[in-house]
Every structure is written in structure tokens, then in C-alpha cells.
Design goal:
single chain; about 350 residues; mainly alpha; Rossmann fold; Tyrosyl-Transfer RNA Synthetase; 2 domains; 13 helices; binds tryptophanyl-5'AMP; aa-tRNA-synth_Ic; cytoplasm; Tryptophan--tRNA ligase
């Protein structure tokens, strides 16, 4: 059975990109898989150490998971820092991964900017902690937006290097498993994780600039639709979304070099759970004056129930805290099992 892991940082408001690119997939994957969904509070320290309300932000992401339909009884929902094994395995992976691998990460380059020497060491090592999140549970599938693809490739590289470096010890302890990686059959302790990326909404762009991704950190609130925006705000933001003067094309290739149009079509497709081609079948030839109100109605119809459920759940702090505590205990039991084996593989003495 596939094991799914994914994480979301507790920084800023969740937006439509997070929802369509990640959380909506988390919900869909619950049917056929065991899932572990984590609010990665330790990751949120990499860019900003001091937060006003990290606890409430963590609760708010948890509430969004639950309001979207994640079942915390069948699956595991918890915050990362509760399970100290994440930090422990990340340290091991810091010693497996090479500095050069980290310097190549586009997210590091973007976030560190020009003053790289002054970025936190945590920001550089970020993907190592992310690999630890995933591999602690020996997850096989990781649903994320397109922007996390490079980090998942690094996770595969780390798993592969660990498996290679310790291959003799893994064989001696008998803890390796055979797995299929592309054409090859390999043996190792850590699985080579498959990214689950794709569909029409894997990369939602800013509503103000079709060349930038929709992001929590964009200074303009008009650039994104927040999961908690009310109906009027959603409609206003879609009405003000940047477009070009042409009507929508009837065929997909007509969207080429029209990034803003393509983005709105992708958002519609993601919300309606249809393909972009199907959206164009319905709206091809129409002006944005027709398409935008239809998109706004659809967005309100899909997001308003989540927003109101999220507010209700956020109001019940004791419930949210109980979910995280219970999830943390269940996650810790799995994580400690993995770490016991990892310590044995490495040769760290333990009880
Ligand atoms: P984060 O918190 O930045 O984003 C959470 C999820 O939302 C996706 N996403 C988007 N998808 C489509 N369009 C967009 N504009 C958009 N913006 C964000 C992200 O791809 C992500 O899936 N490093 C991760 C958190 C993390 C993680 C993990 C994920 C830590 N450990 C282990 C998977 C597995 C991050 O910063 O996501």
C-alpha cells in the first residue's frame, strides 16, 4: 500500500495555490493510501526565526487540513516539532548530502538573494530536513506543487546515497527492501520516493503577474486568493486579475504565451476537477467579461464552505490541539522505529 507524506509551512495565509496544488490532492489520496500530513513548523524558522504567533499559525493550517476533508482518525495530522526524530534524521542527512547539492536549489537562491553569506544555515539545509520528513516514514508518494519538484529530486538523491553508502550494513542487518526505480531494481533501506505533481493546477500563478507564482510572501494581497477570503473579496480579486484583451481560445495551444489567461483557465479546471481543454470547450471564444464572473462563482462555491468550516474548527482550539497531540504520538511511534534501524545501520550505540 502506498504511504503518502506531505507538509505545509505555517507561514502567512494559505492561498489557492496551496489548496489546488497540494491540499486538494492530500484529500483525494486518502481513499487509497495511508497518509501523513504535517505542519512543518521547524521549516518555518529557516526564513524567519522570530514569529508573532507560530502556535496559532500552526493551528490554522491544521484547521485548513481538517476543513478541506482530511480525516485525522484514519490518517495522521501533526506538527513536525512534536516528533524530534525529524531533527535527528535531518542531522544524519546533513552528513549524507553535499553542500553543492544545497547551493543548487533554486528556492535557496531565490530566498537567500544576493547576500547569501547572511542567509541562515537552516535555509541552506532546508531540503535535508524535508528529506527527513519524508523518509522517516519511508513514504513512497509525496503530493506537492511544481515548486517543490527539485526538493523531491534531492530527497531521492539523499535516499540513494544513504542506501549506497551503507549498503553492506543494510544487507548485514537484513533491513533492505527490493524496489523498482525506473528500469532498475535496487535494494535499500530508504524508498526512492515518487513525487505526485501534475494536473491543471500544479503551478498557480499570481493574479497580478502571470510570470510569478502565487505566493504567501507576495506583498500584494490582490495577487492571491486566500483560503479565508470572503465571497466579495474573491470576486473582486478575480475581476481585477490581469488578463489580455483577447477572448479565450478554443484549443489548448491558443493559451501559449498567454500566461494570465492560462492561469485562470488552470484555476477553473482545478476547482471544477476537469481538464483545461474541457474548460476551453465550454468557454472558448468567450470574453473575460463572461469567464471571470463564472470563475468567481465557482471559486466562491468551492472555497466558501471550506473557509467557514475552517473558522468553526479554529474556534475549537482544544480539538485542534488534541488532533495534533494524537497525530504526534502516532507519528512518533513510526518515526522512532525508523530511527532505531538508522542508528543501527550507522553504528550509533543505543538502548
Ligand atoms: P509550502 O508551505 O510553501 O507550500 C505548501 C504546498 O503548496 C504548494 N504550492 C503551490 N502549488 C501550486 N501553485 C502555487 N502557486 C503554489 N504555492 C505553493 C507547494 O508546492 C506545497 O506542496 N517545502 C514545503 C513544505 C514541506 C514538505 C515536506 C512538502 C516540508 N517538508 C515534505 C512535502 C514533503 C513548502 O515549503 O511548502
Amino acid at each position: 500500500k502506498p504511504l503518502v507524506f506531505s507538509g505545509v509551512q505555517p507561514t502567512g495565509n494559505l492561498h489557492l495555490g496551496n489548496y489546488l496544488g497540494a491540499i486538494k490532492k492530500f484529500v483525494a489520496l486518502q481513499e487509497q493510501s495511508d497518509c501523513i500530513y504535517c505542519v512543518v513548523d521547524l521549516h518555518s524558522l529557516t526564513a524567519q526565526l522570530v514569529h508573532q504567533d507560530l502556535g496559532d499559525q500552526t493551528r490554522s493550517i491544521t484547521a485548513a487540513f481538517l476543513a478541506s476533508g482530511i480525516d485525522p482518525k484514519k490518517h495522521i495530522v501533526f506538527n513536525q516539532s512534536r516528533v524530534m526524530q525529524h531533527a535527528e534524521l535531518a542531522w544524519i542527512f546533513n552528513c549524507v548530502a553535499r553542500i553543492g547539492w544545497m547551493y543548487r536549489m533554486t528556492q535557496f537562491k531565490d530566498k537567500a538573494g544576493k547576500d547569501r553569506e547572511n542567509a541562515s544555515l537552516g535555509l541552506l539545509a532546508y531540503p535535508s530536513l524535508m528529506a527527513a520528513d519524508i523518509l522517516l516514514y519511508r513514504a513512497t508518494h509525496v503530493p506537492v506543487g511544481e515548486d517543490q519538484k527539485q526538493h523531491l529530486e534531492l530527497t531521492r538523491d539523499i535516499a540513494q546515497k544513504f542506501n549506497n553508502d551503507f549498503s553492506e550494513k543494510i544487507a548485514a542487518l537484513g533491513v533492505g527492501v527490493e524496489m523498482q526505480v525506473g528500469e532498475e531494481t535496487v535494494n535499500g533501506y530508504f524508498p526512492i520516493t515518487e513525487p505526485v505533481i501534475g494536473g491543471p493546477a500544479a503551478r498557480i500563478m499570481s493574479l497580478r503577474d502571470g510570470s510569478k507564482k502565487m505566493s504567501k510572501s507576495d506583498p500584494s494581497d490582490l495577487s492571491r486568493i486566500n483560503l479565508t477570503d470572503d465571497a466579495d473579496t474573491i470576486s473582486k480579486k478575480i475581476r481585477k486579475a490581469k488578463t489580455d484583451p483577447e477572448p479565450l481560445p478554443s484549443e489548448l495551444d491558443g493559451l501559449e504565451s498567454r500566461p494570465e489567461a492560462e492561469n485562470l483557465v488552470g484555476i477553473y479546471a482545478g476547482l471544477a476537477e476537469i481538464s483545461k481543454a474541457d474548460v476551453l470547450k465550454e468557454y472558448g471564444g468567450q470574453q473575460f467579461s463572461v469567464f471571470k464572473p463564472a470563475l468567481a462563482d465557482l471559486a466562491v462555491e468551492k472555497l466558501a464552505p471550506i473557509a467557514s468550516e475552517m473558522r468553526r474548527i479554529e474556534g475549537d482550539r482544544a480539538y485542534v490541539d488534541a488532533v495534533l497531540k494524537d497525530g504526534g504520538e502516532r507519528a512518533r511511534a513510526i518515526a522512532e522505529g525508523t530511527m532505531k534501524t538508522v542508528r543501527d545501520i550507522i553504528g550509533l550505540l543505543q538502548d
